[in-house]
Amino acid sequence: MAKSLMLFCTALAACLALAAADWSQGTATFYGGPDGSDTMGGACGYGNLYNAGYGINNAALSQTLFNNGASCGQCYLITCDRSRAGGQWCKPGNSITVSATNLCPPNYGLPNGGWCGPGRPHFDMSQPAWEHIGVVQGGIIPVLYQQVTCTRQGGVRFSIAGSQYFLLVNIQNVGGSGAVGAAWVKGDKTGWIQMSRNWGANWQALSGLVGQGLSFAVTTTGGQHLQFMNVVPGWWQFGMTFSTNRNFAY
Question: Does the UniProt entry include the keyword Cell wall biogenesis/degradation (predicted)?
Answer without folding.
Answer: yes
